[in-house]
Amino acid sequence: MAEQGHSLLSGCRVLDLADEKGVLCGKLLADLGADVIKIEPPGGDPARNLGPFYKDIPHPEKSLFWFYTNLHKRSITLNLESSDGREIFKGLVKAADFVVESFEPGYMESLGLAYSELEKINPRIIMTSVTPFGQTGPYAHYKATDLTGVAMGGMVYIYGEMDRPPNRLSCPQFYFLGGLHGATGSMVAHYYRELTGEGQHVDVSCQQAVVLSLMIVAEIWDMLKYNYRGMGPFYAGARPGGLPLFSQVIYPCKDGHVFLLVTGASQAGMVASSRALVEMANREGIALELKDYPWQTIDAATISQEELTRLTDAICEFIRTKTKAELSSLALEKGILLAPLTTVKDVAESPQLAARGFWQEVEHSELRATIIYPGYPIKISEKTYKVQRRAPLIGEHNEEIYGKELGFSKEKLIMLKNNGVI
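The structure assignment produced for this chain is given below.
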């Protein structure tokens, strides 16, 4: 077992039953140093078949999705639908701190493994259930893909272009947001347990997690009855009793795009930013019509769309003449409210991320390769993040856990395997 002495959850054990819907939850607890045992059905978890794959070779031991979401974990195989499998699981619960699962509501109860049963075995156990819509409600038994999930959480409606159908993010969000909230809920329950000695059931709805990622759109509907939706490079400011004001915030430049606020009003920093931007443009013979423009007089509640568009169009002409690096340098020098839109390549090559040791090299001896992973984004004094191990192979730790930790003989392990229990 890997050294875990300098981790926040050192000494804690997680039994991870989750498939793709909740697998990130266990990974995040493992990041904090918990000993996470990934319990897979004999033959392996179906999530192992999710791409992309290492060198584009579809194989359950080469899923990059699996590699990331199961980093640090140990793997055992166990058939919970067998009576022997359930008894073994109950034995594992006795020494565990968390159980993470993502089965359809009611499934664990049908096996006699509901939280109400597990707490009889271990009153301190925390059971975290990550499902598309939670354990209760009219949608509790609905199934969901990432697309249907983020659509029902309101995320799809607020992405894309104003004059086109709603759009989705190409990277999965639904289950990852649910897994993130699952880990957060697990830690809150852990804190409560440290105070009271009592475990509890954490019920996570991925749909609710998506809604909480939408920033202010629910609040704007509640206050102004304005339905936010995708606006492409613009920001729509809702205005009481009238049409929204569209402000351009994404501008094309020589080698990509930048985020830029062009405004003023009573905010001194925004006034100074817009003035400095115009001064730079004027020095190159651009946006001369905005020289000495009274930025402090802008009122978002009354300025016309035509006037605001006139301002941003003049600025856009200047932005197109510069690269992201040139604009970033000018922004830092002059205090301009601008930031580059970084590509994945930019992120991978970021000197800031490199300086903080964000990227971690992980050895995969079975592939004869080293793969770079994103690390843990939080630094905690005297608690060093360290990759414990690469994601496990199918049942890689059966002998280690069943044999060495639980004391099962080799003969018993062979019998359990032959009977389809492990």
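Interim note for the steering committee: The radius of gyration is 26 Å. The domain at 231-347 is CATH 3.30.1540.10 (formyl-coa transferase, domain 3).
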